[in-house]
Amino acid sequence: MSTDVKSMHMGQITSFFIPTVTLVGQNCSTQIPDRLKSLGGKKPLIVTDQGIVAVGILISLRIRSIFEITWIASDIITTGVFVPLVLAFFWRRGTSRGALCSMLCGLAYCLYNLAIFLGMPLPAFWEQQSALQVIQGVCLSLLVFTVTSLLDEPEYHKADAFLARTR
């Protein structure tokens, strides 16, 4: 999927995500204000090389298996993004608040599992890195998306615009 398609999906699911913009090169951070203005954004999330390196070092010191790292990455995608992205195509009643709450809940679930995996003495009601763990995360995300969307005002205009763009 191209960045434009991803940003269209996310822009329709939640009204405050902006398209992903990658700036590369020496002193590229000086371009941020102009690029932010051209996109109409107000609050950028800036990830620098130092931030990526720091996270990579933390992960590499604690987790030695590429399979475990891959599992964690797929857990984030499955429990946090899958439900709102798929339901945006099939359920017109879904709202941006429901999608955001579902994503945050999936992320919290994933971070909880990561904390257990890294050795924190937290209660776990499933075997780590199991199908049950993923199924429970998806079900939790689905529940949060559904309940939050039903409690929120319908956003049919956003759903119709989104579906019109996908055809």
Task: Explain what this protein looks like in three dimensions.
The chain is mainly alpha-helical. Helices cover 66% and strands 0% of the residues.
Query: Strand tally, please?
Result: 0
Number of helices: 8
Secondary-structure element order, N to C: HHHHHHHH
Low-confidence stretches: 1-18
Tell me the overall shape: flat
Largest sheet at a glance? none
The secondary structure category is mainly alpha
Instruction: Summarize model confidence as the mean pLDDT.
Output: 77
Strand content: under 5%
Cα-atom radius of gyration: 18 Å
Terminus-to-terminus distance: 16 Å
Helix content: 55-70%
Based on the model shown, name its key terms:
167 residues; mainly alpha; 8 helices; disordered N terminus
Summarize the entry for a quick read.
By secondary structure, this protein is mainly alpha-helical. It has helices at residues 3-13, 32-39, 49-62, 66-80, 82-90, 96-117, 131-151, 156-166.
Please give the structural blueprint.
Blueprint: H1 3-13, H2 32-39, H3 49-62, H4 66-80, H5 82-90, H6 96-117, H7 131-151, H8 156-166
